[in-house]
């Protein structure tokens, strides 16, 4: 049997493992599922005869190398910064590697060695990055093949709560790593290009510069800018494009509300708050407000954030129980961002019957035979339950499909790579449709931006 080593059995691995187990008999596969928690790995095997669970500590070099050695191909579902040691083992033992993470500089440095050993190191093959690359390149390639020249590309993606589970004023729950949500947008200005002009949005303004999107059957959404849209110009072959913008999708009103936390300083992760363990939620809020001999914490919050009495923003803050004097933070040496994450987790954790939702939206503007055209491509995926979530499906299924295509010799180009070539994206996008990941493409009149570029 052909052995697939899967390192990491967390939430994102559910649909990935199930897909490969379902294919295991026909494709002659045996899955070795390794995780620091043996119990978690065992749970993910579903007692399937073609799966073996092992306790795997990737910091244990002997244990890690032994596991890699026996595999025909390795899937790493570890946090991004931990892939590199696994990747180096894959070079030594000549094993293909698949990850859903962004290509790091350290991973890119292995490109020559991977090619020399005829190894495929497929990265960025999850949701975002992953499905976004594949669905975008499909349309971009089609436009270029019929003689069109790309002038605009916008891409938005968001992990949200499904409409039937949308039960709070923020229209949001954590469907993935809460810490990443709290820290989103930090670490430098967002940068993109719009109508040929470079644009920059500093973090302090990020959540007040949004675009609006309409998705049939699901209503209105907003998108705020990702940190660096420009790095995909060359990757997508869009060096001469006039507009390139990538953003994150939320329900309308979320960004304006989130900006209250940014203004107060609650998303800061750069310092530790004294005695955070014994701090109440109310004291946490008050620590960011000026002293006043008579005004309450509520009044001071309203004043500093300029919240009117009838503003829904106030109700959103109240819903989080932020002003509760009895709830304790309970975290030692915590940063403001860590405390905010704890408070939000109280309210935004998915309940047992909740379902999540992925929304992706691409806009392609192009010129052909002297005329400007536009194609909008939209995808909505709803999770089945708390195990087979939309996030687990859209991250895990492309990883599993790419792994099988590599094993079966359908993907052959060696090296460290992204899924931007036809041999990768065509079969995977086609198969994803069987699992409810379907893009609906629509021809539109070209909308663009202000044609007066001098003032845009």
From TrEMBL:
Sequence ranges assigned to domain Saccharopine dehydrogenase NADP binding in this UniProt record: 4-121
UniProt keyword list: Oxidoreductase
GO cellular component, one term: cytoplasm
Pfam families in the record: Sacchrp_dh_C, Sacchrp_dh_NADP
Presence of keyword Oxidoreductase: yes
Any one GO MF annotation of this record: saccharopine dehydrogenase activity
The Saccharopine dehydrogenase-like C-terminal domain, residue ranges: 126-437
Gene Ontology BP annotations: lysine biosynthetic process via aminoadipic acid
PANTHER family: ALPHA-AMINOADIPIC SEMIALDEHYDE SYNTHASE, MITOCHONDRIAL, SACCHAROPINE DEHYDROGENASE
The name this protein goes by in its record: Saccharopine dehydrogenase
Source organism of the structure: Flavobacterium petrolei
């Amino acid at each position: 049997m052909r052995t697939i080593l899967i390192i990491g059995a967390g939430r994102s691995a559910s649909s990935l493992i199930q897909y490969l187990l379902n294919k295991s008999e026909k494709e002659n596969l045996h899955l070795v599922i390794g995780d620091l928690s043996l119990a978690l790995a065992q749970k993910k095997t579903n007692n399937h005869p073609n799966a073996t669970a092992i306790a795997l500590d990737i910091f244990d070099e002997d244990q890690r190398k032994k596991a890699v050695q026996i595999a025909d191909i390795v899937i790493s579902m570890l946090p991004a910064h931990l892939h590199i040691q696994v990747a180096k083992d894959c070079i030594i033992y000549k094993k293909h590697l698949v990850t859903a993470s962004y290509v790091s500089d350290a991973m890119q440095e292995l490109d020559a060695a991977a090619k020399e050993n005829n190894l495929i190191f497929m990265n960025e093959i999850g949701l975002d990055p992953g499905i976004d690359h594949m669905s975008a390149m499909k349309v971009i390639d089609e436009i270029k093949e019929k003689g069109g020249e790309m002038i605009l590309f916008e891409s938005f993606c968001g992990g949200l709560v499904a409409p039937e589970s949308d039960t709070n004023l923020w229209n949001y729950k954590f469907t993935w790593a809460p810490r990443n949500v709290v820290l989103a947008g930090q670490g430098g200005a967002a940068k993109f290009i719009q109508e040929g002009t470079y644009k920059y949005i500093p973090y302090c303004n990020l959540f007040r510069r949004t675009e609006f999107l309409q998705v049939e059957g699901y209503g209105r959404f907003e998108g705020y800018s990702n940190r660096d849209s420009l790095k995909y110009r060359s990757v997508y072959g869009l060096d001469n494009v006039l507009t390139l913008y990538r953003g994150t999708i939320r329900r309308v009103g979320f960004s304006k509300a989130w900006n209250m936390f940014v203004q107060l300083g609650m998303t800061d992760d750069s310092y530790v708050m004294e005695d955070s363990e014994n701090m109440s939620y109310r004291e946490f809020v008050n620590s960011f407000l000026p002293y006043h001999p008579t005004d309450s914490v509520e009044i001071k919050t309203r004043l500093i954030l300029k919240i009117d009495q009838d503003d829904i923003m106030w109700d959103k803050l109240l819903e989080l129980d932020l002003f509760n004097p009895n709830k304790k933070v309970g975290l030692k040496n915590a940063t403001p961002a860590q405390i905010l994450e704890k408070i939000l987790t109280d309210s935004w954790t998915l309940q047992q019957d909740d379902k999540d939702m992925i929304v992706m939206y691409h806009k392609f503007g192009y010129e052909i035979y002297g005329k400007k055209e536009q194609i909008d491509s939209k995808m909505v995926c709803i999770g089945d339950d708390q195990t087979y979530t939309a996030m687990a499906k859209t991250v895990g299924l492309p990883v599993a499909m790419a792994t099988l295509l590599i094993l079966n010799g359908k993907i052959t180009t060696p090296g460290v790579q992204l899924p931007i070539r036809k041999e990768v994206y065509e079969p995977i996008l086609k198969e994803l449709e069987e699992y409810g990941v379907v893009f609906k493409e629509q021809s539109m009149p070209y909308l663009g931006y202000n044609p007066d570029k001098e003032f845009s």
